[in-house]
From TrEMBL:
Organism: Halobaculum gomorrense
InterPro entries: PspA_VIPP1 (IPR007157)
Region (Disordered): 152-278
Biased composition (Basic and acidic residues): 165-182, 209-230
Protein name per its UniProtKB record: Phage shock protein A (PspA) family protein
Family membership: Belongs to the PspA/Vipp/IM30 family.
Lineage: Archaea, Methanobacteriati, Methanobacteriota, Stenosarchaea group, Halobacteria
A Pfam match: PspA_IM30
Amino acid sequence: MGILSRTSYVIRSKINLILNRAEDPTETLDYSYEQMRDELQDVKQGIADLTTQKKRLEIQKRRLEENVEKHNEQAREAVQQDRDDLARKALEKKKSKMNQIEDLESQIAELQNTQDQLVDKKDELQGRIEEFKTKKETMKARYEAAEASTRVSEAMSGVGDEMEDVGRAIERAEDRTEEMEARSQAMDELQDSGAFDDALSDEDEIDRELESGRTDREVDAELETLRAELGKGSAEDDGEAGAGADADVDVEAEPVPDEEVEAELEELREEEDADASK
């Protein structure tokens, strides 16, 4: 097989495959039925045309027969008048008309024979069409039932083209959902670990620890200042004072005047108000 032959064979096979996939049996059956009906109509039209032609020949035959009778009467009358010459002419015309009548009868017989054959074919074709119509409706019902059953089976098993698309859509949705859930959990973990704060700040870990130490020292210093203003002393002094009190119970602490206490409290309130206004 040559290259061109193989190419032609492959192309025809591809086209045939495409046509088979695109073909709807119900539409094909309906089209075939309409084609047969068109053929039947053509046969009926042919019979009608043939009958019309036959009728024309029969009319022509009747006219010739009338002429034959007329020439026969002319011949009789000519003989009665001793006009043999006219009688001969009338008989010659009669003979010519008789020959034409014979030809017409032969043609009419042939047309009648053809008409009878066409009528038989028409009846046979009409019977086949009625039979095909019954089979067509039966085949269409079977095909539609099989098609519906196939769609239901594909829907239940999930192997159809549409169900396959639905399955892929569900898989993509599940993958996307899992991805978003994982991303959400990762964002929560980063938020809890302070990674976002680190990303938004120029400070590194050492800077943050140093800042925390400075804050602690400042708080301790302010606490010592407050204790000193209130006459409480430092935390170490309180410890030593407590130990000394245990050693010498009879020593009494010198009372602080109320005016000094009130003055120190007023000064502390003013500092707090000043800090708050900042």
